[in-house]
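Researcher: We are triaging several targets before committing to wet-lab work. For this one, the compound of interest is pyridoxal-5'-phosphate. I'm pasting the protein sequence and the ligand SMILES. What I need is the predicted three-dimensional arrangement of the protein with the ligand bound, expressed as structure tokens, so it can go straight into our comparison scripts without reformatting.
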Amino acid sequence: MERNISVTENGHLLLGGMDAVSLAKQFHTPLYVLEEDKVRSAMAAYRSSMNAYYDGKGLVCYASKALCCKELCRIAAQEEIGLDVVSLGELYTAASVDFPMERVCLHGNNKSLEELSYALDQKVGYIVVDGLTELETLSRLAKEKQVTASVLLRIKPGVDAHTHDFIRTGQIDSKFGFALETGEAMEGVLTALKTENILLKGLHCHIGSQILETEPFVHAAKIMMEFIRDIRDKTGVEMQVLDLGGGFGIRYTDEDDPVPYVEYLKDVSGEIKELCHQYHLTLPSVIIEPGRSIVGEAGTTLYTIGCFKEIPNIRTYLAVDGGMGDNPRYALYGSKYDMLLANRAAEAPSKTYTVAGKCCESGDLLGENIPLPEAKVGDILAVLSTGAYNYSMASHYNRNPIPPTVMVKDGTARVIIKGESLEDLLRNDV
Ligand SMILES: *Cc1c(COP(=O)(O)O)cnc(C)c1O
């Protein structure tokens, strides 16, 4: 499967109608570039298909851990979707742009008192409770504030999405949520139903990330619907909300062939509606939480190539002016990316390189066996599909400032996250 890229007449990569080489000149490198149309169209496609498949009872919450900043929160609000936040910082960012809090879900396996208290004050739509200790704490806080907390319980459905024949084992061992197999989940529901100042609205599950097939999602939805039926049979209470999490895969390289996300929604909603019919349940409100699939492919990182090191008969290192500080994913998980030379984007590859960063760490690589044309010092390297889990995972390792993010659209560019200055690095030093 060939990737769709646009190239100018003089062979430069085009991003949102902007020449990537000019972007690199104007904003310097390393530079995160985000294509606004891609972000908005992913949000809009999710929103309209969720509405269609769930008869207007669907909600898309963008998982902001993939890339969180004020402008992304504003765009999510404009596209009329919700947000999934996992920390005080993400919630605070959403609040700073007056994000509609009824469309926010707060996650986390060890939420602090401050986080829970702030979430109650902000009246977030759903607090996804991860365990009984948290349920007690939340009940106490809500009582003090004389409010009722709207709660989903995080369930481990026992679907291991990363083995091909996903099986219902091995998943009890996760730090997240209540296990189904052991009866812990039912106990959690029974406890939540009788806990003061807690309104149990429904259930949540999230089965993993970068999942490329629909079956694991359908399977998880089935397990959750069976559990909703069991709860109804035992207590007479029907869960009103089913949050199925995120995890839809994207294309990083040729090896990835993701199912278009509308397909996931079609298959999963088909299963849910069928089971509602079979079990005589009312269709719940369904939430999904895509992160990577909204921003991942919209992002490209630009670097300048600084030097080469040829190790005869082994490999040629090509070093760029960024690295694990702005993209730790290869160092962390061996994640693969497609790369090209932004100033020679139409040239065919003729060599393979090991792409290294500039950090004092041998493992500071962005990729190995990367096919490129014979590269030269000063060429601009573009790493594709870096919109998710790059900026949000960036660090100051080696005291390299975190690069800026520019949003491009229709041939214009605007900074949405400023790059850090050297002064910024010293700001909190005493
Ligand atoms: C990480 C996460 C997501 C988003 O996952 P993606 O793979 O980026 O779609 C959604 N919900 C929860 C609870 C998560 O932990």
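Researcher: Any quick observations?
Model: Residues 163-170 have pLDDT under 50 and may be disordered.
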